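Can anyone check this?
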Amino acid sequence: MYTKKSFNLAVKKSIAVGVFAAIGMGAYVTSAAQTFTGPKVVIEAVTQVSPALPQYTLVDQPILRDGLKKKSDGRIEVKLFSWPERNVNGPEVLRLIKSGQVDIAATALTGVSGDVPILDAPDLVGMNFSLEQAHKIADAIVPFANKELAKLGIKLVATYPFSGQMLFCRKPIKTIADIKNLKVRTSGPSASDLVKGLGGQPVSLAFGEVYTALERGTVDCAITGSGSGNGVKWPEVTTHLYVQPLSWSVAGYFVNLNWWNKLDPAVRKMLEESFAEVEAAQWKMGQQATDDGVACNIGKEEGCKLHTLIKKNPMAEVTADSASIDAIKKVFVQEVLPNWVKRCGDKCGVTYNEVVAPINGIKYSK
């Protein structure tokens, strides 16, 4: 039972605790506010190949551009552009970053692997039948890629996939064996190795020229993402979609290393957190965009939310049988992997066996 004296003492203690708590909270708020004080940071970023891609509208814009501005109370401003808005193409990206003309840029890893061959490792065509495996391999390769990129003054800060890379064909196919003697547009040497190993004729064409080539019959098939092909209207000039992903067009966000290292630590920490958020969202988007692209292309309305539903002459869906999967794996082991090591160098073969083989179970041997 409280006496008057003990009650007064309790009240005094309660007030003291409240005062100290308020002081502590004030110190926390002041500290948090100080984290974002300082000069405004304006960042120029060039990311996706089209401003209409869901990777751009549903991830880059809300997280990189709008999210960073909001989280930093306006201190960080990201001027975000798509490639066409800055007249950029894939091979230029690393040079733009290296020269400091842009601070952040994104591109498919294979598109810049001429400068850093190890960047091909996460997405060799015919290696990753699942997005989950592609993600694990990409995560494992990043530290090794950054050792090479550092020599160019560049850092890879996040990876992500596009929709699964599939065969769009203007001629009927039932299995992967049916591409024998067909002319197939490929992007990158590992895709060419796979097509050649399967008996097809790889053809090199700029992406923007493929629609016309398919329309005229200059090529019989072409490989791109299920969603990407939908976006450039390939279903208008093709009839069959081989829905087993042959790769995932794994891409990355790159930064100028000197610029990155000179950033205010609080700003750099916030960027690291945002890129982690972007990376998680983009890998989730990869599977969504793949499934959605297939649904839209084959005219399946209930599964088509991100891309354009093909109502007139939807494509025929061709699934992979076990014999096709075995054939792809065989060509990967015998052609794609050893040819990549030849281009990349023996060191890449060693890195592959140390980092990738424990994940996919396929070891490289000379």
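Reply from J.R.: I decoded it. The longest strand covers residues 240-247.
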